Amino acid sequence: MQDTEREAELLEAERRLQAAQRAGDVAQPPTRSRAIGRDSGVRLALCERGREDHVPPGVPTIELAPVGAAAGAAGAAGPVASAHVPVTVRHPAYVMYTSGSTGAPKGVVVPHEAILRLVPHSNFLRLGPDDVVAHLSNTAFDAATLEIWGALCAGATLVVVPREVALSPYRLGRFLAETGVSVMFTTNALLNAIVTHVPDAFARLRVLLVGGDQYALAQIRRMLAAGAPEHLVNAYGPTENTTFSAAHEVVPADLDRGVIPIGGPIDGGYLRVLDDRLTPVAPGGTGELYVGGQGLADGYVGDPGRTCAAFVADPFAVVPGQRLYRTGDLVRLRPDGDVVFLGRRDDQVKISGFRVELGEVERVLGDCPQVGDHAVLAVTDAEPVQLVAVSTGPADPAEVREFLRANLPTYMVPARCHRLPTLPVTPNGKVDRAALLAALGRDPDPEPPAPADPPRPAGPPGPDGAAISDGAADSAGASRAAGRTGSGDVSGGASGAAVPAGDPVAAGLADIWRDLLGVAEFGADSQFFALGGTSIKALHLVGAVHRRFGVDLRIVTVFRRPSFADLAREIADLVRTEQRGNGDGPGRP
Fold it and tell me: What is the mean pLDDT of residues 555-564?
């Protein structure tokens, strides 16, 4: 298990041991980490002191010295002898876990050959020694494969983006300029948040790759108008085909049409758009996207059944034994051969770049005591998606969410939990999800919103697979669809002291909270995350504070002191410090 600062140890250990690695995410619950460790058959763990609860019992552990400690410091692991084990391109390089529809995460086994097809040179990206590649992604997110191995295989410079920088639009913009980053990947969720506050943040990049979830065309236009990177590439691909399967460089004609395709296959791979009979669809037709080629994973670790269901024989193979991976994505094949993403065939959604199967969240919800009948819904009418949990049992919604956050990664924990007398059903006895969402939207007295926790402080950057791991951007619409009325005391704490009257900082912060959280009333003791705040919304909060007051509120302050009163005092202190330094009058109105 490692944080972002431990990349050197991770890479050196993999090189010396010549073993497949599985990057752990210390931001997820230890119970989940141990279950994944057992499932993947981990034989040795590298972790810092205090992280041992993430390691399955009986697995040998090498304790890493604190970052920056001198060699030979107490607690540091001794020299690890290089192992001389023959390794071919067909040996596994890593195992990466994604959400599973059956209720358990799936471990995707990726061979070395698949990485070599991705980097350092492909038709969508060519890296060289002069490039500076940003490492923004969580190492448990497959975009890290492109960042780390792309830079190392090309002899480029790899720059690790600190968590604090990644979650501040203004600091990230300065960081990219100061470090000379030329190549970067980000999820669309993070891109949208950054462009909202610093539209020219990516103007100096040679290549900006975006993907992970649906794009927001308005934000793309805003970024290009403010300062476009030299190349903007829309990248698409499941973990089962090693990070990316298709790519398309965005051109003005895409903006004119209002549609950005996912493009055509990257080198070493191919795309097939097939109907339900596995027959190719004609240009202009709609079908399911199947991907194949050198990037295909070997399958799911220890699960031949799911492997056979997802990795199928290619009916048009030119080489015996070729396989295809069924993505579950519905696409349209354009006459020019490019592919346009339309949606999903199942209950899988993407939240800040992470794949989430509603079935996995529902299984964990069902393990909660006294939860009764239950369902998990995806509110998809705003970007990004929000999850909502609904149950009929006597379990308190706040306790239900605490149970979920103890057993699921942060990005999979529903933003809200509701308790209803019954769940509506369809004529065939299944939960009527459309009716349930409509009922929640009409509910005049919903349960108070469950606290939407910030990422666990010890964890590595997670969206979005990138730097953030949960929640939506600025969408009051999603909150209302999830049952929030937008008025009254919607969180524990609004009944405390009133927001100070006549205080310009408090008044300005109150305006920001109303815009971000979609609530009309709250008190001095109200908590940002209890009102529906998320890590992406925290990023927007930092950006809005900078615009309004001209000061840099640290993202860690939002996580550690999330009450309205504490944040108002912190901003007031920053404004006074700024005024003393500049000899100015009051902060910006």
Answer: 91
Contact between 185 and 161 (Cβ < 8 Å): no
Residue pointed to by tokens 């969240």: 361
Provide the token pair at 110: 């990726």
Distance CA(489)–CA(347), nearest Å, equals 33
- CA dist 530 and 521 (Å) reads 13
- CATH superfamily, region 486-582: ACP-like (1.10.1200.10)
Tokens 């606290």 correspond to 451
Residues 406/453, Cβ–Cβ less than 8 Å = no
Q: Who's near 508: CB < 8 A, 6+ residues apart?
A: 548, 549, 589
Residues 147 and 366: their CA atoms lie apart, in Å, by: 38
Show the tokens assigned to 168. Answer: 């501040």
CA 397/CA 448 separation, integer angstroms: 8
d(Cα 544, Cα 440) in Å, to the nearest integer?
30
Residues 497 and 579 sit within 8 Å (Cβ to Cβ): no
Q: Are 427 and 104 in contact (CB under 8 A)?
A: no
- Give dist(CA 456, CA 29) in Å, integer: 10
- Determine the average pLDDT of the residues in 155-183: 93
Q: Report which of 549, 551, 560 is spatially closest to residue 588, judged by C-alpha positions.
A: 549
Please state the length of the chain.
Answer: 589
**C-alpha to C-alpha distance for 436 and 326, rounded to whole angstroms:** 30
Q: Of 176-190, 262-276, 299-313, 469-483, which gets the smallest average pLDDT?
A: 469-483
Residue 130 to residue 276: CA distance in whole angstroms: 47
What is the DSSP code (8-state) at residue 399? Answer: H
Q: Which helix (H) or strand (E) holds 272?
A: strand 269-274
d(CA 211, CA 136): 13
Name beta bridge partners: 111.
92
- Provide the b/e sequence for 41-51 (b: ≥16 CB within 10 Å): ebeebbbbeeb
Q: Are 220 and 254 in contact (CB under 8 A)?
A: no
> Which of 246, 251, 250, 280 is closest to 263 using CA atoms?
246
With a cut of 50, say whether residue 116 has pLDDT above it. Answer: yes
Question: CATH homologous superfamily for 348-442?
Answer: ANL, C-terminal domain (3.30.300.30)
CB 98 within 8 A of CB 345: no
* CA atoms within a 13 Å half-sphere pointing along the CA-CB vector of 274: 19
Domain spans, the chain:
1-87, 348-442, 486-582
- How far, in Å, CA of 272 to CA of 274, rounded? 6
> Taking the C-alpha atoms of 348, 350, 351 and 356 in order, what is their torsion angle to the nearest 10 degrees?
30
Instruction: Specify the higher pLDDT residue, 524 or 131.
Output: 131
**One fold for both 348-442 and 486-582?**
no
pTM of the model: 0.77
Nearest to 9 by CA among 77, 57, 60, 75: 77
Of the pLDDT bands very low, low, confident and very high (cuts 50, 70, 90), residue 495 is very low
Flag the least confident range among 158-162, 196-200, 308-312, 501-505.
Answer: 501-505
Instruction: Provide the strand spans (E) within 503-548.
Output: none
pLDDT category at 173 given cuts 50, 70, 90 is very high
